[in-house]
Amino acid sequence: MISKESIETLKSLIDIVDVIGNYVQLKKVGSNYKALCPFHSEKTPSFVVSPSKQIYHCFGCGASGDAIKFVMEIEKLSFQEAIEKLASMYNFKLTYTKGNFLSLDLLEKVNNFYKGELEKNSFAYNYLKQRGLSDSIILKFELGYAPSIEEQINFFKNANLNFKELTELGVLVNGEYPRLIERITFPIFSQSGKIIAFGGRTITNHPAKYINFSNTKIFNKSRTFYGLNFAREHILRKKEAIIVEGYMDVIMLHQAGIENSIATLGTALTNEHLPILKKLNSKVILAYDSDNAGINAAIKASKLLFKNYFEGGVVLFEEGEDPAEAIKNGKNINEYLKKQIPFREFIIEFTLKKYNLKKPTEKKAAIEELKEYIKSLDEILKEDFIIQTAQKLQISPDILKISSKKEKQKIPIKKIDIAEASIIKTVYEKKELLNWICEYIMPEMFNTHQEELRLLFEEKFDHPKLLDLVLREDIMVLDENTLKKQIIKLLIPYYQKKKQEVRFQNIPSEKKVFLLKEYNSRLLELKKGNLVLILDEKEEI
Predict the structure, then answer these.
(1) Nearest to 284 by CA among 292, 293, 274, 294
(2) Would you place residue 191 in the very low, low, confident or very high pLDDT band (cuts 50, 70, 90)?
(3) Which domain holds residue 29?
(4) pLDDT tens digits for range 362-393
(5) CA distance 88 to 238
(6) What are phi and psi of 211, to 5 degrees?
(7) Is the model's pTM score more than 0.85?
(8) How far apart are CA 312 and CA 342, in angstroms?
(9) How many other CB atoms sit within 10 Å of the CB of residue 114?
(10) Among 202, 219, 236, where does a domain finish?
């Protein structure tokens, strides 16, 4: 793991305004900065960054945290990856504890072994050459070869590698045998360039052509794109990301000079991939295989991208061809890219191709499938989609319209009691008053902000509901004299109410007299301008 001292030093260097300003446009308002929240859709800025507290908080969706959490959430990174990302931003060299350094170094050692085996195995090397790969591209993507079980186990033992860690990182299965056996190896890198997993391709006609590592503590297939570490700068420069299905497609495209290419890892494009693509802020082109499985995957991915407002389209290769084969066969990929079909048109056309529209039952099924998708679209996307679908089917657009009316979600207006809120914010800012104030007020004495006061007493200082109050510019921090007056102003009606309640309670007369006397005494002191201690509940019994 990264050493705690290293993390704390990095934290002291980080300026949250500087970090978040790289992702959203901040505007200074008072002592804080405001912006449209990057975590939910909104028209009025409710996202606040506090330079004094080094935290962010959204009054709309409740998202909050420090600079590290922001980078984790916005980039969908693990804690360690976020730390490494921030360290690179600040040109800060991290130090690692011995245990974690070994873990990071472990996959590098395994990869070096696999690369060495590829050099020794002419059959594996020739397979890559036959696929059209150059030596330079083999070196760039650090391809290797995983030999037999015995050879790998012997290497792991002789190199004194930790078998438990090898299992946790996915190299071994159940601590006994390697996951990849007699396969070309493809190291999978994090966005920061660290090896986090491997994939493997059989060259012995194994029924499982490709194998990917299962999810581990440092690797999640659904949040990772193969080749993104190489492609990121090219994607940002061209404002275009090409997504393909496999390792070889990515490698061959990069070899052909199309270096903005990435691939999903044995899974379909999912919602978990979208934050990464949104961060790239680029057009997305799907270049999947031209077989039925590839077409169906492209329809599914197009639906996901279109409904989430991504621009782009789908590239179709000749039947039975994938991007890697097209390049090997000397095809001009750029010509294919020019003929991409926009997502909306592709979804409609290729969904309808699945059905025989001359048959009424199948035409009805096609309409129902598209109507189901239309339901999931925002209103702004629905109209054109319905019109194009109706034209293609030669039906009335009314047939595709959804009859059920959705009620507009009303965003509840949060009630603010300025008197209570100012007490809470003052104590939050001057935490040395916390023990003192506990002697005079308790959450039950507040009418509006009982929960926030309770959170303050429990010292849950980063709770979103508490931050909703303390980051508001219209709530003032009071000096101690004004704070005292504010508490007195709050306590007088509280004890007056308690006095009225006790008059009508069915309790022994002795207790009633005692309580009335206590409340009267407290009210008298409060009206003189003196604070009074909370009535001991044991005395009430």
Answers:
(1) 274
(2) confident
(3) 4-89
(4) 999 999 999 999 999 988 899 899 999 999 99
(5) 23
(6) -130, 135
(7) no
(8) 6
(9) 25
(10) 219
